[in-house]
Amino acid sequence: MDLNLLQKKGIRQLALVLPIVLGILALVTLKACKNDPEKNPENEKTRTVRFIEAPLVAVAPLAIGYGTAQPGNVWKGVAEVSGKVVSVHPRFKEGEILPSGTEVLKIDPTRYQLAVAQFEASIQQSKAQLDELSITQTNLSALLEIEKRTLDLNARELDRNKELLSKNAVPAVEVDREERAYLAQQNKVRQLENEISLLPTKRDTLKAQIELIEAQLEDAKFNLENTEVKLPFDARLADTPVEIGQFVNTGTLLAEADSVNLTEVVTDVPLEQMRLLVQSGSSSSSLISLGPDFDLSGLIESFGLSATVRINAGTFQAEWEARVVRFLELVDPQTRTIGVVVAVDQPYLNARPGIRPPLLKGMFCEVELRGKPGKERVILPRPAWHDGFVYIVNKENRLERRSVETAYFQNNFAVLENGIEPGEKIVVSDLSPAVEGMLLNAVVDPGLFQQIIEEATGRPAEE
Prior knowledge:
alpha+beta, conserved putative lor/sdh protein from methanococcus maripaludis s2 fold, CATH 2.40.50.100, Helix Hairpins, 4 domains, 6-stranded antiparallel β-barrel, 6 helices, elongated
């Protein structure tokens, strides 16, 4: 091939490739030399968000349950004697409130009064017989002394006649007569001695008889006392099934009444919440001793649980301080809850018609149980928690996403295990979309801060 032709062909190919290569080199050079565009804060959009500073508080565990109010004490007046109802209290009606000791009805006491009088008379008769027995013993003892002296005289007379008989001074018949007199007198002495020896036995018999009659008298007095049916405590009548003139037998229900000084509410608490409540008030090193000196009330007191009972029935809203008095013996296997019984003292106190109701039987109540404060932890309101992470406002007022680990949730806030330091600004607004690094206009939310502090500690936050 002609050399000139090859040179021309190479020049044409180089002319085609060279611009491409130069273009690529230019692009690479420009890319290497390119600077990031400067941000213009004046033109960057900002999002206004609400935040709170992450509080560090000693959380008092809280559990909310519900239950129905029931009287702490229920009295069922059952007839212990039979008879006709002869009187009833003028306010012996369902719903009436009567003080302790009020006689609500009376059963005819006539035959029980007669029984008391009969037994009292029998006791007096037996005591009179005892006195008579003492006099008899005195008289018999004196008579015995006389008869013994007579016996001595008869013995001496018999001995004298026997001596005269030996001298043929008296006939034998005289000796026989004296001997018969002596034996008869000896028999009298023995009879008196036997009669006196029986007196202690007769006395013991009379004493036993008196004790028996006294016991019967006490029973008769008890029956007489039970003809008067009285309230054992301040109570509200719940059932009044008998009327005046009605005959009642032993065991008949006469009345039913509920205490007005104590009301109880049973609420079910999940086991996990109960664990938190109890752990806050007890030492992990403490042991429960079930020995003879075991005191359940002391154990419950050691947990340091406090309780509040509330009702919210339209315009009727009220709350009462309560005491945790006991736990039910069984755990519900379906709901994994345990029954807790709280008691309200004086549930009728401060009741105002139309404004504040008393805590009545059957009212549906909210029960708040709170334990002792535990160790200090960071808490966050639920709106700030997003499935394991939260948004914070960093030092440059930009949005930062942070992973957190929660210990547990309680009502409207979460208790954190780690991930957030106290005082960090936590976003509580609903950001959508939430772009990490976006510029924020952060506004504090004091109301939400106050709310979670109060919920966590059970008292208002300090100003």
